[in-house]
Amino acid sequence: MTENSTTTVEPGARSSATRGELVLSLRGVSKHFGAVSALTDIELDVHAGEVVALVGDNGAGKSTLVKILAGVHQPSAGTITFGGREVTLSDPGTALDLGIATVFQDLALCENLDVVANIFLGRELSPLRLDEVSMEVRAWTLLNELSARIPNVRDVVASLSGGQRQTVAIARSLLLDPKLIMLDEPTAALGVAQTAEVLNLIERVRDRGHAVIMISHNMEDVRAVADRIVVLRLGRNNGVFYPDSSNAELVAAITGATENAVSRRAGRRQAQQDV
Ligand SMILES: Nc1ncnc2c1ncn2[C@@H]1O[C@H](COP(=O)(O)OP(=O)(O)OP(=O)(O)O)[C@@H](O)[C@H]1O
Ligand SMILES: [Mg+2]
């Protein structure tokens, strides 16, 4: 992948090799909050075994879109097709039952409980009625499958690093084997090594055949792991890019400006490298 290839190229080998059937398809999805149009006419396709990054400036509508797919908000218009049929995601339980799992930015973990308890939080009863030993084995198996670095599943979450907490939240979301997993800012507030660890984890989730939607403000992380990059701007689609797009192209689509401080700086850096 080179810096100066254009966005017209087809997705790279890694996505076409693993990308499976169409899992999620949005057509004409809009959402109004009173007079505020948070989303207008959104189109989005996500396949099995694919990481789609959802990027955009503050207020672009990313979280609103994720909340619609998580069953937290209802769209004002448009259709959502999931697993081949049109669905109504009337509440979070419905979304989860259909196979849409969400890791919200605050992770919603219990600090004072251990890793096993957090992975099974709220799901200790049927259909996953398991005893402590079985839950521990299941937690270990899940974390091992993800090659996750959690030293001890009996450690309380309060003692874990930010990356390890993100890992626990992701493992928890995989418990019911969802078709789609959505991650809201999974690398925000993480250091370099922890970010790399979480990006590796996202790749492993993708390689297991799950469809992944990841929201991020970090273009480096997005390009490192995404198969496609969907840009939202002021609540509308503003282009689909591939990881070999330049920073300037992405920033232009995100901000709506063809020329701005960030792209000028990137251009200057590129010019210095070229001489
Ligand atoms: N519950 C709500 N009630 C009213 N307006 C809302 C609500 N939720 C979001 N909005 C508005 O919808 C628009 C999109 O917000 P959203 O939170 O989806 O943006 P975002 O892309 O996630 O931004 P950020 O990067 O800052 O998290 C904003 O104008 C926001 O003020
Ligand atoms: Mg948001």
Automatic annotation (TrEMBL):
<dbReference type="GO" id="GO:0005524">
    <property type="term" value="F:ATP binding"/>
</dbReference>
<dbReference type="InterPro" id="IPR003439">
    <property type="entry name" value="ABC_transporter-like_ATP-bd"/>
</dbReference>
<keyword id="KW-0472">Membrane</keyword>
<dbReference type="GO" id="GO:0016887">
    <property type="term" value="F:ATP hydrolysis activity"/>
</dbReference>
<keyword id="KW-0997">Cell inner membrane</keyword>
<keyword id="KW-0067">ATP-binding</keyword>
<keyword id="KW-0813">Transport</keyword>
<keyword id="KW-0547">Nucleotide-binding</keyword>
<dbReference type="InterPro" id="IPR027417">
    <property type="entry name" value="P-loop_NTPase"/>
</dbReference>
<dbReference type="Pfam" id="PF00005">
    <property type="entry name" value="ABC_tran"/>
</dbReference>
<dbReference type="InterPro" id="IPR050107">
    <property type="entry name" value="ABC_carbohydrate_import_ATPase"/>
</dbReference>
<protein>
    <submittedName>
        <fullName>Monosaccharide ABC transporter ATP-binding protein (CUT2 family)</fullName>
    </submittedName>
</protein>
<keyword id="KW-0762">Sugar transport</keyword>
<dbReference type="InterPro" id="IPR003593">
    <property type="entry name" value="AAA+_ATPase"/>
</dbReference>
<feature type="domain" description="ABC transporter">
    <location>
        <begin position="24"/>
        <end position="259"/>
    </location>
</feature>
<keyword id="KW-0677">Repeat</keyword>
<keyword id="KW-1003">Cell membrane</keyword>
